[in-house]
Amino acid sequence: MVGARPRSLFPIILVSLASTAWSQGFDGPARALAQKISAALKAREAVVFSFNIAAVVGQSDASAAREAISRELPSAGIVSNPQAAISLAVTLSQNLRDWVWVGEIRHGDIREVVMEHWPKLEETGGSASLVIEKRRMIEQETRILDFAPLGRNLMVLDAESVSTYENSGGAWQRKLTVRVPVSHPLPRDLRGRLFVQGDVYQAYLPGLTCNGNASNGLGISCRDEALWPLGSNARGISIPTRNFFEHFVLPDGLEKRMAPFFSSAGFSDHGHTAWLFAGTDGRTHLYNAAFEPGASWTGWGSDVAAVETECGSRTMLLATGSGDGTMADSVQAYEWAESAPKPTGDPVPFPGPITALWSGTERGTAVAISQDLKSGRYAAFRLAIPCSR
Amino acid sequence: MRRFAWRFLAAASLIALAPQTAAESRPRYGGTLVVELHDALTLTDPGEWPLRLVPLVYDRLVSLDASGGPQPALAASWQHDASNKHWEFHLRPHIAFHDGTPITAGAVAACLKDWINVTPAGDALVFQLDTPAPDLPVRLAGTRGAILMRGADGTTIGTGPFRIVEWQPGKRALLAAYEAYWSGRPFTDYVEVHMGRAYRDQEIDLELGKADLIEIPIGDVRRTAQQAIRTWTSSPSGLLSLLFERGHGPADDAHLREAVALSIDRAAIHNVLLQGQGESTGAILPDWLSGYAFLFPSARDLDRARQIASAVPKTGSRISLAYDPADPVARPIAERIALNAREAGVSIQAIPGAHGSVDLVRIPLHSLDPAQALADVGARLGPESLVTAATPESLFAAERKLLEDFRLVPLFYLPEIYGVSSRIKNWNPHPWGDSRLENVWLEARTP
């Protein structure tokens, strides 16, 4: 298992990204604390209840915490009575990393303390430790689909060709280009992927798989095959004339027919791989390791990607924002925490709509392609999540 | 002619502004940063170094971010089993000790084996623990997790961003930037550490530009504020407490110790002698680390103290309270505690020195893992306590047990306060005091 804290993957969760703020998750721990308090009391034993806050929280969180514990105590069978001989003081506290519910039960000189703790969720932006480094690599008129490092050089897949670029004085200069022999019309919203290993490369277009060799004048050969690598050892079957996938092939080779999806991201949650799918229905869908559907939500864009950072084996999830092709977009990073995505850092702005967002072939990186709203040109960006920040 | 003059003036303004702008915007390499310390460091025992300095020379498998979350350091990644008892840490490739010796899993295991059960396996380190340790990465980020190699004479060779190039015991250490450091060479060329410097001398050196980072005793905070010295205050991270020695006559009576504990007017000491710095506490762990310190009462209860003290058989012998004479606030605090105890009917005399019937001690925080921090304090009370608690509830129980006989009486959690020279740029230490001097750069000295 990877990560520091035990997490259950699929409790019932309601994810509402459109809400103004992420809840700090008081409800579940409040319920657990109430059950502990209930277990410490005799049946039907009434208490004088008091609520305290020993944490630095905003007014809304304070209210949410009070409401959560006030709701959960009666649900656990705990009766409040100002005349009771037993006092119950519930305090919301915090330490460096966690929120802590503290329940202190006093009956004369007898004192019992129960606690519940859970990780804090950081606010978006502010002093978030994670920063996405965005570096513009190349820019051109033709729609860029993907790029990958080729040793010290760069290989680029665009709507027409595969090209190599060399760095000359800080600028990328195109050196070799080979046209992709396309056997069928490609969709208007063209997407593609490029993988490089040594001098050998594979290019994927909808319904088309190509192999080539950079040491052989970029010699390329293609065949009609629609199986794309989608990261985390999973693959998707592309629709040759569309911009989405309908089949998903799990790492063990099991093929699943899916509701159409634009993109997917596999990520590790406590040693198990879970999956996110950006569906053509405008919702992001969560599937667990057994490939059972879980929560779904709106508010994310059509492209999601998983980035394996070097920061403690964490996986960051990147997602584009919502909006159409006339608007500038952004990429937001999320960390998977307590069975829910937690926004981390500020959204990274782009000069126009994002036409591609892929996990990079370099660890800790992603590829983003954006069409500049002013110039109409396509720019390829390398996104990196450095550990030093 | 007039147009030319205006253009010239504009250009001249830009030229005048250019060096200043450049110096402020981008990190500058070079220079020597001078740190002054009151205490002396030893080359053989970095475990006793202040938490803020250890990472400069001795890297750990794991470091902590500003939120206390573990981040890869010498270990690039790690994983554990479902029980949190079996952990594997994978070393970053191509890393070396400061003398060029490759850092291998065997070398790291040899460094840590006296503290924790670890064995090398290829490039990985396997920790097999008897009890679940969900916070093992945080524990490894503490002072005891420092990775070093010992020479035949017991001196240490480190792994951090700075390497020791000169060491004058008790006086001076010169640390040079480690060019091959895995996360990049520090910006400054050297960190020069002057040890055994009196607090007043440190302040003068800062004012004269001879020092860049000094210690400010709590009693001087208001005065330095009036002098407009740039200061930085850490989270409360050092526990000032009473530690009753064993076998010291009347102080061996737990009821008497309880009476002393209840008699202490922490609020008055905090407001007057500590000038409001730090926080009063009845707990071992600070609240920012445990989240439950408020459960340990720290308020004075003089009536109860008198009641308990009156029931203690009178022996006629006085209890001696030893304090560190070099600590400017120790003497007045010890004397105030003695006064408080006398009000409860317990006779205590404050004396300078290291050991009395009871000692006023400052216990530094060496780990941000609460269980490890508690175990460190427990070790002061005798054989190292087995504090393996993983939840706040079990930690609370362990802490309550450590305090139940009143041999240790927590008083205050105190911050560290530094004076920082204006030429230090990118000063961004972690709240608990890790100075992160590898990220600091120095403004060029003006001739």
Which helices and strands appear, and what pairs or packs with what?
The complex is a heterodimer of chains A (389) and B (447).
Chain A: H1 27-40, E1 46-54, H2 59-75, E2 79-80, E3 86-94, E4 98-107, E5 110-119, E6 133-140, E7 144-150, E8 153-158, E9 161-168, E10 171-179, E11 193-197, E12 200-205, E13 208-213, E14 219-223, E15 227-231, E16 234-238, E17 245-249, E18 255-269, E19 272-279, E20 284-287, E21 293-297, E22 304-308, E23 315-320, E24 330-337, E25 340-349, E26 354-359, E27 365-371, E28 378-384
Parallel strand pairs in A: 1-2, 1-3
Antiparallel strand pairs in A: 3-4, 4-5, 6-28, 7-8, 8-9, 9-10, 11-12, 12-13, 13-14, 15-16, 16-17, 17-18, 18-19, 19-20, 20-21, 22-23, 23-24, 24-25, 26-27, 27-28
Chain B: H1 2-25, E1 32-36, H2 54-57, E2 62-64, E3 70-72, E4 75-80, E5 86-91, H3 105-112, E6 118-121, E7 124-128, H4 136-140, E8 149-150, E9 156-157, E10 162-168, E11 172-177, E12 190-194, H5 199-207, E13 213-215, H6 221-226, E14 231-233, E15 238-244, H7 254-263, H8 266-273, E16 279-280, H9 287-290, H10 302-310, E17 319-323, H11 330-343, E18 348-352, E19 358-364, H12 370-380, H13 392-403, E20 408-414, E21 417-420, E22 424-425, E23 441-442
Parallel strand pairs in B: 1-12, 17-18, 17-19
Antiparallel strand pairs in B: 2-3, 4-5, 5-7, 6-7, 8-9, 10-11, 11-12, 13-21, 14-21, 15-19, 15-20, 16-20, 22-23
Helix pairs in contact in B: 7-10, 7-11, 12-13
Descriptive key words:
heterodimer; A: about 400 residues; mainly beta; Double Stranded RNA Binding Domain; 2 domains; 7-stranded antiparallel β-sheet; 5-stranded mixed β-sheet; 2 helices; about 50% strand; elongated; disordered N terminus; B: about 450 residues; alpha+beta; D-Maltodextrin-Binding Protein, domain 2; Dipeptide-binding Protein, domain 1; Dipeptide-binding Protein, domain 3; 3 domains; 6-stranded mixed β-sheet; 4-stranded mixed β-sheet; 13 helices; about 25% strand
